[in-house]
Structure formats: C-alpha cells, structure tokens
Amino acid sequence: MAEETKKGAPKGLIAIIVAAVVVIGGGAAAMMMLNLGEKEKYFLAERDTIDFMVETVEDRYEPEMNWLKHTQENVTESTIELAAEYNDPFGGSGTMGMDPSQIINNSSLTITSATDMENEELSAELLANIGGIEVDGINFHLTSERVLLGLPFLEEILQLMDEDFGPLLHEFDPATFTGEETLGLDSVFDGTSGFLTEEDLEHFQEEYLEMIFEELPESAFTSEDEATQIMGESLDTEKITLHLTEEEMKELINLVIAKMQEDERLKELMREQFNPLVATDPMMDQEIDRMISEFEEGLEDAEEAVENLYIPEGLTSTLWVHNDLVAKRDFEVSIGSSEDDLVTFNVAGEQLLDTSSQSFDYELSFSDPSDEGSMNISGDLSSEDERIEDTITLTIPNVVQLSYNGSETLVDGTRDFERTFSFDDDFSNGSLIWSGSATYDNDQMNSEHEISVDGTDVDPDMFGFFMTIDSQTIDGVEIPDEENVRDVGSMNADELMNYFEMEVTPQFQQWLMGIMSEGGSVGF
C-alpha cells in the first residue's frame, strides 16, 4: 500500500503544482502594492487589468446588475411563461396518427415565484396547459428550515423539516444513512452552494497568495522599455519578466504544500463542495472520506516528489504593460520527472483594452513526448453610443470551432438583443439563436425571449422556444399556515408508508382519472 501511494504521488501533485504555477504567474494580482519595484508593478498590472474588465462588464450591463442587486435586497415576484412552437417539415403525423405539433403548439407552462432573500423565504406556483388540458394547484414553498409541497389532488400541504430529513432516511435505511444528512436549505439563501464565500476567498488570499508574494525574490523580476506590436499597433510598453529557476520553483511549491498540510479549512472546504451529492448518493460520503485521505497521504509524500521534479528552464512569465494594463503576455513552463517526459505549457497572447472596445487574441498550448495540442481564443468587443457588438471565437484545430456573435442596443432602459452561439466541426455545424428584449424600470423588470436553432438538418422556422418574464417588487412571500399542513417528517416509516398507500395514492388515482375522462380544466 505504501509503495502504491509513493507511485501515485506525482499524479496527485499535478493539481497542486498547476495551482501554484498559475498563482506565481499572475494569480496573486488581487493584492495592493505600495512600494512599486518590478515585482509590485508586475502584479499591479495584473490586478488593474482584472479590475478594468470587471468594471467594463458592470458598465455594459448596469441595468441587469442593478436589478440583480434589487432582487437580493427586496422581496420580488416573477411570472415566467414558457411555450414552444414546432412546424413539422414533413407535415406528417406522429405515433398513432397524432400530430406532435398540435400538442406542442397548444401547451404552455407558467411559473409564478416569490423570493425574500433577507427573511429566507421562497414560494412557487405552477400552471401547466398540455394540449388544452390545464393542471394547476402545484405549489412549492421553501424556508431555511422546511420544505412545503402542495399538490392538486391533496387538500393538505406536505411539509418536511430540514432537521427531520436525516433521521427519516436513517429509519428507512440505517445501514446507508447516518441520520445527520440535511437538505442544505440554508445554502439556497446565502448564495454559497457550490461556490467559495468571501470568507473563503479571503482565507486563500491571506494564507497562500500573500505568502507567495512575500516569498518571490525581487531578483526574479526584471524590466525594460520596449516598443512592440499589439494587435497591429505599435505601442510603447514596459516589459516586465518574472523568471524562477528550478530550485526557486521547488521551494515555492514546497511552501504551498506545507501550508496545505496545516490548513484544516481547506479540507473542510473540500468536503463542503461534495456534501450536496451525499443527499442523493449516500455512498459518496465514503468516497469523499477516501478522497480526502488520499489527498492527505499525497501531501505527506509530496516533498520527495517535488524534489524529483525536472524543471530545466524554470518558469518564465513576461508581461508587456501599456497604460497600466497588460497588453501582451507570454507564459511558459516545462515540468516532468526527467528529460524524456517533459510536459510544456504555454500561454501567449495580446490584447488592446479601452472603455469602448476590447480586442484579444490568445493561444494556449501544450506538448509532451507523444502529443501536442493548442487552443485559440480571440474576440472583439465594443460598446459605444448605447450599442454593443461582440464576436468571440474559440478554435481547437482539427476538432471544433465555437463562436459567439452578439448585437445589442440599450435605449431608455430597454435592451434589445440578438445573440448567436455557433459550432462547426468536421461532421456538422449549427447555431442557437437567442433574441429578445428586456426593460428595467426601477422596481420592475419585463422581458421577452425567443430561442431557435439553425443547422445542417434543422431550419430556424422548424422549432422555437418562447419565454416571457414579468417581475415586480411585492410586500412579502406568502407561506402556508400550520393548520392545513401534514408534517411527513414527524411520521415514522410505517406511518409514512401507510399515509401514501391509503391516502395519497387513491386521491392521485381519482384526480388522474378525472383528467383522462374530462380532458378539461382540473385543479383546486
């Protein structure tokens, strides 16, 4: 077992090494620098470039950003109507002589939801129209402590408390469930489900980025003035180069590994990211334990593995800075266990950034003794006189090309847009076309969306998907009172099975027969 662990250590280290390399090459740019030597100017240029792009996006989509903030700070209600249109190019019938277009074109789904992020309350009501048959009475309510579900065939509302979820699962299957499982309802409202919190980001910045910045030697940075071509223009730039020798890289990587060995928050975070999977697959709990255990074992053997790394040219990262922003970059590092298995990573590109337009062209490539590959991403983004024109292309040679083309206008709070997402490979090509408009007016928002598909075998008039959204500010979310609630979490396993067999199932069957026999509007 020990021998297997040692053999697997270099592979286990790859994520650590890549993370450290990225941070060394530019990820520490979030820190403020006061004493502007070459090291400080290098990271300050990275930080200012990131800040510039974030501000550009915020300025472009100010109405959307303001509305998002409004929904987080106020109680809002949204009504979403979904519909589709299908035009059979053959004009034929479907199964049993039924024309599917008749059902699709006469069906719709309406979802009315209300959200109060501050008081941690959410509700939703569904109305479905399926080929002229209406089904309503489906209600869903959520707080940080419980889930409530209303169904059209039950007069009472079903309730499950978060604290009862684990014990109920344990009673049904004590060998699989511990009884500690939760629905994770609080994460719905705190916005941390599957993401790093501000506290987590601050932890990594203080414990890792600041440490790496302090440990990077001043002697690793050099600078010179250089006139260079950027996107076809000759610009005067300051060329700042970071070069780390093999020994300096190993020292930094070992510092990161030592920090990770002591970092209990890192291990907690790894578990938290996988916790939502445990509720759906209890065996994941054991898998997570195994992964964390292997991670810890890999760290224990990491120092020896790092010492055996072969990094002949070290790491070189060069920035060309114009008007305090990164205009060009070239990053390269080769890592392996010997000269015979070196893997080389390279990122090279250039960009011109100003408030009204941003152009970029980057090449990402790798090579090893048996293979090589590259990916190019380029784009031209412009925003001027309340008009946006964007083109972005991602190309993987001999594999696929993905592209985005967008055209938008913003007049008096109304954004009209047409956005096309396309792909093209050796076998087929196609586009998804998303057009519509959205109006933002203080405490309300209204939008219309249409999505169609155009491709090798699909005509844009063949299928369409339509969505309208009407949102407004309301006083509060309505949550059902306790009088008409059946608390299923308080039942034991026998009581719960008996309830569903003797009460829920017969009422569902009766409701379903009513729909099938009447073919009309059914609901409560």
Give the SSE map.
Elements: H1 2-27, H2 38-60, H3 62-73, E1 76-86, H4 100-104, E2 108-116, E3 121-130, E4 133-143, E5 146-150, E6 157-161, H5 162-172, H6 186-190, H7 198-215, E7 221-230, E8 233-244, H8 246-262, H9 264-280, H10 283-300, H11 302-307, E9 315-322, E10 325-335, E11 343-353, E12 357-368, E13 371-384, E14 387-396, E15 400-411, E16 414-425, E17 429-441, E18 444-455, E19 463-473, E20 485-487, H12 493-518
Parallel strand pairs: 6-20
Antiparallel strand pairs: 1-2, 1-19, 2-3, 3-4, 4-5, 5-6, 7-8, 8-9, 9-10, 10-11, 11-12, 12-13, 13-14, 14-15, 15-16, 16-17, 17-18, 18-19
Key traits:
alpha+beta, 20-stranded mixed sheet, disordered N terminus, single chain, 524 residues
Task: Characterise this structure.
- The protein is an alpha+beta fold and 524 residues long.
- It is built from twelve helices and 20 strands.
- The chain has a 20-stranded mixed sheet.
- A hairpin with a 2-residue loop joins strand 17 (429-441) and strand 18.
- Helix 7 (198-215) packs antiparallel against helix 8.
- It is globular and about 80 Å long.
- The model is unreliable at 1-35 and 520-524 (pLDDT under 50).
